[in-house]
Design goal:
The chain is mainly alpha-helical. Helix content is 58%, strand content 0%. The chain contains 13 helices and no strands. The radius of gyration is 23 Å and the shape is globular. 28% of the residues are buried.
Length: 317
């Protein structure tokens, strides 16, 4: 198949020239080293972000601002990825333990009777789309479970589930399978579970005895925000200034969010999903990072000036 390629390779000299449209610098040594290490595309994202705030800064950004912004963003991603890991591992455990115990079925994830393919969508188009997606998704679940057991080279630690092993006749239980699959798969499993099972996961893992349908819908958006945030951090992409999927706050918290797609909305979702014991740790670590930053987080609109009070007003789920 012929490939239509309109992009020509960019020399380092051209990269340096292009970066001058974003930030001011005279000597090329530091910028050359930065481009060589970071790559032009990644570097230019930070440059574009800075130049978009030139009026707020009051001058054209300098290369020092670029370096400081990159350093801050790197540390922010490392910090948030740590908490994303905690939230992801915890939710996988909640989902596996709560439903397997309730149903007395360790492989519930492979039984279609526990799912709602339509996701109870009222709109006919959305309903049909959900049903079509579920067919493919469920088929992939079955294949992925089988592949894990068969691939001895990639997963030698699962030998007990293969021929000759103590559990050779067993299907991978959910607590094993969930440890290997991506967060996106876990999110889809939760999204397609029957409504009563979705609310049971929340009752099992979080603080209240009753959760309505609206909460599970909101929780879907928090999980998706977690996935977005985790993937940005894991792939080392720029986080500052990034907008992503819509986060639906609880009704009583409608005023907590400045925007439903900005960085703080990701932090909102992260706090909602994290165990209570981690809430203050996340707040403390964010505050410490802000304090030692060499860029002005608030002038650049990375977080709202009153983010701490907004954070404190996020209710426990």
């Amino acid at each position: 198949m012929a490939v239509n390629n309109n992009s020509a390779p960019i020399t380092l000299e051209t990269q340096l020239k292009n970066m001058k449209s974003y930030v001011h610098f005279i000597k090329k040594v530091r910028m050359t080293a930065f481009l060589s290490h970071t790559g032009y595309f990644r570097c230019s994202r930070y440059g574009k972000f800075l130049i978009s705030h030139a009026n707020d800064i009051g001058t054209k950004p300098t290369q020092d601002m670029l370096f400081h912004l990159y350093d801050f963003d790197t540390k922010l991603r490392e910090l948030l990825f740590h908490y994303c890991q905690i939230a992801e591992i915890q939710f996988k455990a909640y989902l596996a333990d709560s439903i397997s115990l309730k149903l007395n079925d360790a492989v519930f994830y492979l039984d279609q009777q526990y799912y709602t393919p339509s996701r109870s969508e009222r709109d006919k188009v959305k309903k049909q789309s959900s049903i079509r997606f579920f067919k493919t998704f469920f088929r992939n679940l079955v294949n992925d479970s089988s592949s894990l057991m068969k691939n001895s080279r990639k997963y030698p630690e699962l030998k007990e589930y293969r021929k000759g092993g103590a559990k050779a006749t067993h299907i991978l239980p959910c607590w094993v399978f969930f440890s290997y699959v991506e967060l996106g798969t876990i999110i889809n499993i939760y999204a397609y579970l029957r409504g009563d099972l979705r609310t049971y996961v929340l009752k099992y893992g979080y603080s209240k005895n009753h959760y309505g349908k609206s909460t599970t819908k909101q929780f879907d958006t928090w999980l998706e925000a977690l996935r977005n945030l985790r993937n940005i951090c894991a792939h080392h992409n720029i986080l500052v200034g990034k907008t992503s999927s819509v986060v639906l706050p609880e009704i009583a918290e409608a005023q907590v969010l400045v925007s439903d797609t900005d960085l703080f909305s990701r932090i909102y979702a992260l706090k909602k999903i994290l165990p209570i014991s981690e809430h203050e740790h996340l707040r403390h670590d964010l505050k410490k990072l802000m304090k030692h930053s060499k860029i002005d987080i608030y002038i650049l609109g990375i977080l709202p000036k009153d983010w701490e009070s907004r954070y404190d007003n996020i209710f426990i789920l």
